[in-house]
From TrEMBL:
<keyword id="KW-0206">Cytoskeleton</keyword>
<protein>
    <submittedName>
        <fullName>Microtubule-associated protein 70-5</fullName>
    </submittedName>
</protein>
<dbReference type="GO" id="GO:0007010">
    <property type="term" value="P:cytoskeleton organization"/>
</dbReference>
<dbReference type="GO" id="GO:0005874">
    <property type="term" value="C:microtubule"/>
</dbReference>
<keyword id="KW-0493">Microtubule</keyword>
<dbReference type="GO" id="GO:0008017">
    <property type="term" value="F:microtubule binding"/>
</dbReference>
<comment type="similarity">
    <text>Belongs to the MAP70 family.</text>
</comment>
<dbReference type="InterPro" id="IPR009768">
    <property type="entry name" value="MAP70"/>
</dbReference>
<keyword id="KW-0963">Cytoplasm</keyword>
<dbReference type="Pfam" id="PF07058">
    <property type="entry name" value="MAP70"/>
</dbReference>
<feature type="compositionally biased region" description="Basic and acidic residues">
    <location>
        <begin position="54"/>
        <end position="77"/>
    </location>
</feature>
<feature type="region of interest" description="Disordered">
    <location>
        <begin position="54"/>
        <end position="91"/>
    </location>
</feature>
<keyword id="KW-0175">Coiled coil</keyword>
Length: 91
C-alpha cells in the first residue's frame, strides 16, 4: 500500500513538474520572440540614425561650400573695388 501511495504521489509531482517546465518554456519562447523583435527595431533605428547622420553631413558640406563660394565672391568684389579705387587715384 505504501509503495502504491508513493508511486501516485511521485507521478503527480512529475506531472506538475512537466507542466511547470512547459509553462517556463513557453515563457522563454515568448521572451525570445520579443527579443528578436526588439533587435529588429534596434537595427532599423541604427540604420535610420546612420542615414540621418549621412544626410546631415551632406547638408553641412553643402552649407560649407555655399559659404566658401560666397566668401570668394565677396573677396572678388573687394578686389575689384580696390583695383577701381587705385585706378581712380592713379588717374
Amino acid at each position: 500500500m505504501v509503495s502504491g501511495f508513493l508511486y501516485d504521489r511521485l507521478q503527480k509531482e512529475v506531472l506538475n513538474l512537466r507542466r511547470h517546465c512547459e509553462a517556463k518554456e513557453s515563457d522563454m519562447n515568448a521572451k525570445d520572440q520579443e527579443i528578436k523583435m526588439l533587435m529588429k527595431k534596434v537595427e532599423a533605428l541604427s540604420k535610420a540614425m546612420e542615414v540621418e547622420s549621412k544626410k546631415m553631413k551632406r547638408e553641412a558640406a553643402a552649407r560649407d561650400k555655399e559659404a566658401a563660394a560666397a566668401k570668394m565672391d565677396d573677396n572678388k568684389k573687394n578686389r575689384n573695388i580696390n583695383s577701381s579705387k587705385r585706378a581712380m587715384k592713379a588717374s
